[in-house]
Amino acid sequence: MTRSASHRASIMAPETALSEIKPKIEFRHVHKHHGALHVIQGVSTTVRAGEVVVICGPSGSGKSTLIRLINGLETISEGEVLVDGIAVSLLRGRALQALRSRIGFVFQQFNLYAHLTAEENVSLAPRRIGGLTKAAARQCALALLERVGLSDKTDAFPHQLSGGQQQRVAIARALALDPDIVLFDEPTSALDPEMIGEVLIVMREVARSGITMVVVTHEMGFARQLADRVLFLDEGEILEEASPERFFLAPSHPRARRFLSQIH
Ligand code: ADP
Ligand code: MG
């Protein structure tokens, strides 16, 4: 079943429905250069609160760069990225840290701390940034690990976990500060095929919780089922922005058609 932000807005209280209309993330004529490379070439788009937006496109098209601009992991060359109406490029120090604490990030390579257990990986930010006591942070981490189906692995170190389990810990960690946005950068690309499903199940549950999600993925099943919109990026430009139904059935841009024929 495809669900949409508008559907969710309609079942929420009126004041919530109103806030759903406001842009959560806004790209305004964004450019990014890496040296001589013009990696992002004039991207403008808006993500509303509670939306699930999937970004796809060929390798090197700028997908990672684009989502890393949202939490200031990359600096912008020109234009603006706004989160809740505030330009990310203006934020420094504590203000930037405050923004990042509201945005969870899930990386392709999990990036767990190797010397910390699953529970410690998840409770680190609630302790250090959220100011929770060790015991309270542990409770929070245990609840999140249960949510991602890892109650039996709370004291395991990353090397004792499969790739799929590590990525589920990483998702729990991304949710630990109760963010209102979670960014995923190819969360299943480093996984063996048999582990992709377990991570997608967790992502589906997160998507249905109403959090704003921007997901770089080539998992077209996820996109079809859960995305409100699909953005197709090629050479740093959004060539197509459409509902998943339209994007998969009848992509209008030839490059999007070619891309889809290659990944199916
Ligand atoms: P994607 O995630 O779609 O594969 P990226 O955003 O990682 O694309 O990269 C887009 C382009 O920018 C690529 O040509 C890549 O080589 C280049 N690039 C990315 N990061 C850097 C960097 N830190 N320095 C130089 N070039 C970079
Ligand atoms: Mg990438």
UniProtKB/TrEMBL annotation:
Residues 25-260 form the ABC transporter domain. Belongs to the ABC transporter superfamily. The keyword Methyltransferase does not apply. This is Arginine transport ATP-binding protein ArtM. It comes from the Bacteria. One of its GO terms (molecular function) is ATP binding. The keyword Transport applies. It holds the Pfam family ABC_tran. CDD domains: ABC_HisP_GlnQ (cd03262). Keywords: ATP-binding, Nucleotide-binding, Transport.
